[in-house]
Amino acid sequence: MPVRYTATEIARKYDSIAVRYDRAEWIAERLLFKRLRRGIFSRARGDVLEVAAGTGRNLEYYPPDCRVTAIDISEGMLDIARQRANELGKAVDFRLMDGAALDFADDRFDTVTTSLSTCTFPDPLAVLREMRRVCKPDGRILLLEHGRSSVQLFSRLQDQLADRQARAFGCHWNREPQQLIEQAGLRLVSDRTHLFGVVHVVEATP
Questions:
Q1: 92, 150, 151, 157: most buried by Cβ count inside 10 Å?
Q2: Does residue 95 or residue 165 have the better pLDDT?
Q3: Residue 74 pLDDT more than 60?
């Protein structure tokens, strides 16, 4: 059976690795993700909600006039994000919250974002639908995600190692981000792919 974790189990897993998470991701961050984060999240505007904010690596890229609310299911990851926000001199409203049950009114935010996280959500469709609900009708949803490669050689390898990856990090790295976005009822504006179709930089609207 495929590996499946509950939200509570995911929270515990990321609490346990929070202090070493950035070090483990350092190479990928320097070589690829830093540039992609800047490119997509600098386009945020107004009231911004970041879902699954993790250690706060997107915070430096939001324009200075944005009002940012950042949620995550892991208190350990939020502790790191708070430290980062302090170092950046950014005022951020951090909240411990499950992305599948957002405690915000409909049409609350101008921009809703998430990065490298739909792979870990126990129910990614529920989270994406919640993101759509809280985004204003004329707002935007910005995503930086990874998923199943468009190159068969790599996608087969991802499929073979999927359970091992899920056990280690709660990460289902062979999910299909574009398919999930469409199933969640979002309107896809653009989807630029990188690294053999593994990484997606997406803009969508509710």
A1: 92
A2: 95
A3: yes
